[in-house]
Amino acid sequence: MDHIKQVRILLLNDMEKLEKTLFRLEQGFELQFRLGPTLQGKTVTVYTNYPHPGEEFSRQKFRPLAWENPTEREDDSDKYCKLNLQKAGSFQYYFNQENEKSGGGYIVVDPILHIGTDNQVLHLDCVTLQTFLAKCLGPFDEWESRLRVAKESGYNMIHFTPLQTLGLSRSCYSLSNQLELSPDFSTPNKQYTWSDVGQLVEKMKREWNILCITDVVYNHTAANSKWIQEHPECAYNLVNSPHLKPAWLLDRALWHLTCDVSEGKYKEKGLPALIENDQQMNSIRKIVWEDIYPKIQLWEFFQVDVNKAVQQFRALLTQENRKTITKSDPKQLLKITQDPEYKRLGCTVDMNIALATFIPHNSGPAAIDECCNWFRKRIDELNAEKLRQINYHQEQAVNCILGNVFYERLAGHGPKLGPVTRKHPLVTRYFTFPFGEMTLAEEETFINRPDKSCFFMAHNGWVMGDDPLRNFAEPGSEVYLRRELICWGDSVKLRYGNKPEDCPYLWAHMKKYTEITATYFQGVRLDNCHSTPLHVAEYMLDAARKLQPNLYVVAELFTGSEELDNIFVTRLGISSLIREAMSAYNSHEEGRLVYRYGGEPVGSFVQPCLRPLMPAIAHALFMDITHDNECPIVHRSAYDALPSSTIVSMACCASGSARGYDELVPHQISVVSEERFYTKWNPHASPSNSSEVNLQSGIIAARRAINKLHQELGAKGFIQVYVDQVDEDIVAVTRHSPSIHQSVVAVSRTAFRNPKTSFYSKEVPQMCIPGKIEEVVLEARTVERNTSPYRKDENSINGMPNITVEIKEHIQLNESKIVKQAGVAKKGPNEYVQEIEFENLTPGSVIIFRVSLDPHAQVAVGILRNHLTQFNPHFKTGSLPVDNADPILKIPFVSIASKLTLADLNQLLYRCESEEQEDGGGCYNIPNWSPLKYGGLQGLMSVLAEIRPKNDLGHPFCNNLRSGDWMIDYVSNRLISRSGTIAEVGRWLQAVFFYLKQIPRYLIPCYFDAILIGTYTTLLDVAWNQMSSFVQNGSTFVKHLSLGSVQLCGVGKFPCLPLLSPSLPDVPYRLNEVTREKEQCCVSLAAGLPHFSSGIFRCWGRDTFIALRGTYARFNCRDAVWWWLQCIQDYCKMVPNGTDILKCPVARMYPTDDSPPLPAGTLDQPLYEVIQEAMQRHLQGIQFRERNAGPQIDRNMKDEGFNITAGVDDQTGFVFGGNRFNCGTWMDKMGESDRARNRGIPATPRDGSAVEIVGLSKSAVHWLLELSKRNLFPYHAVTVKRNGKDVKISYEEWNRKIQDHFEKLFHVSEDPSDPNEKHPDLVHKRGIYKDSYGASSPWCDYQLRPNFTIAMVVAPELFTPKKAWKALEIAEKKLLGTLGMKTLDPDDMVYCGVYDNSLDNDNYNLARGFNYHQGPEWLWPIGYFLRAKLYFSKLMGQEAYSQTVFLVKNVLSRHYVHLERSPWKGLPELTNENGQYCSFSCETQAWSIAAILEILFDL
């Protein structure tokens, strides 16, 4: 398989703490950290403790990662820092902003395991593990013969319980010496050492292909460990943990109760030694409450000695120097301070608070007495409160004691211990007591003698439902006092403290223990992981990985929460979590666990090799039984061993079992009491031989086959899983390979109930298996055989000799005993299923099929993969070369695509519903969902981008693909119906789809997606290659924005532009399909989709010219001509030899106001003349009434509105125009509601001189002046008639007039007495620029709107930098929204930020969307605002510039996120307030995209 580098991207977001999220990665992966939207533009540093290559890992040593910026531009939205992962373990990262920690988390890199002499890789999903209790292996020289059972059964990993010297209890997990190999394994003639074990482990790895792991037990040591007596500080004892004294005293009292009960002393109180009923249980409760608690008075450990405290208080009150007593903080109430030594009545109160609380009226003895009485009363109350608390703990303690007694002596599932004796006490002791017998009172005197009490050590255990991150033996936990610990009386809990310095001996001892383990074993199992302090386990595993870098770490966690599990997995780098099949209560649940613990669904999408890093669930080691589980033969039946182990083995994760399961040992093999040895391997042993086993024993033969299969499926990439619950007992698990499309289907009939005593139906449902069954890999049935029944052997752990499996491997269907018959049925045009009828699928049987695709489909999929390799080498595996394909497929797709123009790409990728309808088609409509946004590929890709990462194969889109070829045909036919290269692309797709249609339907979504991804990404590259270097070398953001020009610029079936002059060169032509005549086919720009995409609405003059630089009619607006001139100016400046355009001929359609439309070419003028005429007409003054004025062209306009005026003020040079009944700027909302009486009234007439028009005209005048100086424009002045005479006004003079008057008349001065201010009473914000000058409603001039920023960008010379900066700061504070700019100051009384064009009510300011430009946040002005900020920030100094760059990046990151998430792949026209979605807005708008691109260009 071609090795493709896998890259994962982790997006960092501000304050995102991901410590509880598991991120799993493999060695060889690259991890990239990128900035999420909340961090764009900020100075962020990422730190990690992943070491430099060649350096050792140190958990505390963090290093900063260097940022890489692929574009090397200020727009660094693509920058990343990376790690090349070559080391296994848990690694931490965090990131800082301005030296403040801002977020972080962990990554876990899986180990790579090797086996065999050739060091082949053992993938984690191939692991098959078997647990051995070490003490049952016998003398070391016999180990091989016992371990060989694992080899012959097909296991590749052995888990040994600890091999160290065991404690007195002989429990496998109670170790008396962590550093020494158990002497049990040595013989009289030979003492064995760790190196002997190491040699055996190495031999098993090399010769048997078996790895070995063993437990590490960090939590406790055997109570009889010699070293703990020498170092009692390593345990929780009464010296270092005095808070345990009350619990210790209660524990001793309960021990004395045991002694008394066992001697019959409580018989007359209703409590004999043998407890048999509830009445006797009640007697225990009574005795504890009446005899024990009053005797030991535990509450005194938490109380104050009243007399002593009052005496001390009185002494302080009567002291001479207490003249004035200050009243202390009233919040400080008197409370008991716990005595740290926990002496009886040793607690105290703060006398300062007491003196400040109880103040005598005078210094007389009576007043002092009264005060002391009040003080005494308060102490009594506090002591009573402590008594109540202790009673609450004692209540819980009694309940726990009785629960314990009930389980151990009365419960049906308990051990039924019999009479109370010293060996089997009433309750397990919580503390060690290494001294002789004495009375309880004598024992209590030891509490305060450190030489004695240091040996009273707390036992370990576990607490039901406890927080695993809290240590239950530390102060603050009352577990020992409340008797909530389920105690292991053979082990002492170890006390590490927070760091090695807190207990040096213990840390050093355990580190040495860890190093011995890591030296000789390839992995460890963390015993009791959920109770091991995390910092301890981290430290120990770091030491282990230094010796064994690819350490395999497994653990069992009983936290009850995935989030808590993840804390352990991420911090410790746990490779696999043990999961138990025994937790399943029926076969359905067992099947669900298989699906839960690994693999992806069958037919999943192919994920790209560069993709976001997704949270994972911990890798599972799924075990049919663990050595702690109760025996399944007891809980289910012996017949279930085979089917359940097969189901577990089919899971796409590691699998495992415990020794004894395969031999059918019908009882739990106890880790404490079992002392017999395991059976040995002997191929020739007879079934009745209880000390030896072979393939005839139990289910070993079947186990060998399923283990082999499990390893094959893991190694060969069968990563897709499907679980089918056929009926209540039958589970079918499918593992599928997405590269060769082979499946293995295991059908298991479980036997949770004993078939001998429960009813199982003879009728088994028929099964349909799609494809062609190649072979039966395995069929096995659990059967009885004629041998003597099971008898427990005295020396060997023997299984049931009378049950075995009948097994056949690798046979053909017709040889099967389980399958009655198999027929082939046709499911679809190219889909065959095999219908299987069973006859002997008895409970306890399994049959496993190997299934291939139907041969015809197999060839089709191979050819398909072959064609897909041109897009992705991943498809090489399973591909087939092809000779007789359609000739078009011999051409690489990129060769066809490279001939496409950007206009072609518009048709291939985009076209919304109305554009498609105009062309005679429409967008594809997905049943039970919605139509696609585009007819082109982007419509499909937007949906696939949503469902691919989630593998949402149940989505209606996928259902539609599986149900028929409609969508597939739509894609190719839509293109074939067009002409030229577009049709060629359609034919290429049709030829590929020919093979797609021949594969099984369940595979169609993933291959359809693969074909589309390949073609789509190729087409995007073709588009970018035709764009400017700014785009080609730009960031992903720039590239995706630039596609707006392809999305919105296109040629429809009907040309919607006036014809160009025939004398212009390079005009595109095409043949009209109907008239067969040549016609012009120029690209036109849609202002926005879907509302402005076709017919008369497509080309919106002003919007087009605002958008043209960035993305590529009825005339009644005053600003369009100035945007047009700005556009020509930008073209001249940006395009090489751009000024040549000025000489191009322009076909005049209406040379005069009243001329009829003329055909193109009738009257041509050079562009410079048209420009001069526009300037001249404005200076002369324009006055006309619109053609066809009246309701036929505008049903809302009042009559006066059709009168159009525009001109230039002689004094100021400002362009002015309009009246209060028309709206001639971009803010062009005309009232339409009769109900609210706003019909025919513009919401924003903006008559007079609108600020952006003054700026645009200044820009045009200044530019023409410069051109005329360079003789590139033939006019220096404009001639107009004034009072019947010709007057020349030079561009220089016009330019100067605007310059001299602009700030005087537009700036609202900070000085209230400014002489230029005409309406000081209307000023409500100072330091801003007016929105207009000379409006018919003067208050409109003073409204704060974002339009002045346009003038700042096109004519910055009009503004004083300081004033401009202040105005921009106000605009930022008041108008800057999430994606756009508020169109009106929120402080304005008519502000309303929510646009609803359908609402018709009585509200004049809102009805029928009257507030279109009175608050909603439009996107395009944000471009001008940010560009203006950038320009003036440079003039304000470096700090202002840096802050502005940050602001720009931060604001734009929101547009980036919107663009990525939008199914339209565009930016909207506007949003409602605070960036909320507005359903009346265009989903993608040309000027929105253009404005954002322009900022990035300026950046």
Descriptive account of the structure:
By secondary structure, the protein is an alpha/beta fold. It starts with 6 loop residues before the first strand and ends with a helix.
Topology readout:
Elements: E1 7-12, E2 16-18, E3 24-25, E4 30-35, E5 44-48, E6 63-64, E7 80-84, E8 89-97, E9 100-109, E10 113-115, E11 120-122, E12 128-132, H1 143-152, E13 157-160, E14 164-166, E15 175-181, H2 194-207, E16 211-216, E17 220-222, H3 226-230, H4 245-262, H5 278-296, H6 306-318, E18 336-337, E19 348-349, H7 351-357, H8 365-410, H9 440-445, H10 450-453, E20 459-463, E21 485-493, H11 504-520, E22 523-526, H12 534-547, E23 552-555, H13 562-572, E24 576-580, H14 587-596, E25 600-601, E26 610-612, E27 620-623, H15 632-635, H16 641-649, E28 654-658, E29 677-678, E30 680-681, E31 692-693, H17 700-715, E32 720-725, E33 730-736, E34 743-749, E35 767-770, E36 772-784, E37 796-797, E38 803-811, E39 819-828, E40 831-838, E41 845-852, H18 855-868, H19 893-897, H20 902-909, H21 913-918, H22 937-947, H23 956-963, H24 966-976, H25 980-996, H26 1004-1025, H27 1029-1032, H28 1036-1042, H29 1044-1048, E42 1049-1050, E43 1069-1071, E44 1078-1080, E45 1084-1085, E46 1088-1089, H30 1101-1111, H31 1120-1134, E47 1145-1147, E48 1164-1166, H32 1167-1180, ...
Parallel strand pairs: 1-4, 1-26, 2-9, 3-9, 12-13, 12-28, 13-16, 16-22, 22-23, 23-24, 24-27, 25-32, 27-28, 29-37, 30-31
Antiparallel strand pairs: 4-7, 5-6, 5-8, 8-9, 10-11, 14-15, 17-21, 18-19, 20-21, 32-33, 33-34, 34-41, 35-40, 36-38, 36-41, 39-40, 42-45, 43-44, 46-59, 47-48, 49-50, 50-51, 52-55, 53-54, 56-57, 57-58
